[in-house]
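Course assignment 3, question 2. Fill in each field.
Student: A.L.
Task: Predict the tertiary structure for the chain below.
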Amino acid sequence: FIDGGHGYETVKYDFFTFGEKVKPGGKIYLHDYESGRNADVTRFVSDHMDVEGFKPIGKVGEMMFLYERTS
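Answer field:
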C-alpha cells in the first residue's frame, strides 16, 4: 500500500522503487486515485497502464488503484 507524496514524480519514484520489492502475485495499492484532490496519482495510473511486470487490476474502493506483480 503506497500513500506517500502525491506529486507525479514522487508517485512514480515510489511505484518503481517499492515495486521492485514486490514478489510475483503481490499487490501494490496506490491511494488517492480519482480522489479529486491529487490529480497526479490519477495521471500516473493513466500514463502507466502498461508497466512491464505488473498487471493493472483497476479501482478498488473509494480512492485506490491496484496493480498485481506478474513477474
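Instructor remarks: The chain has a mean pLDDT of 91. Residues 8-19 form the longest helix (12 residues).
Grade: pending
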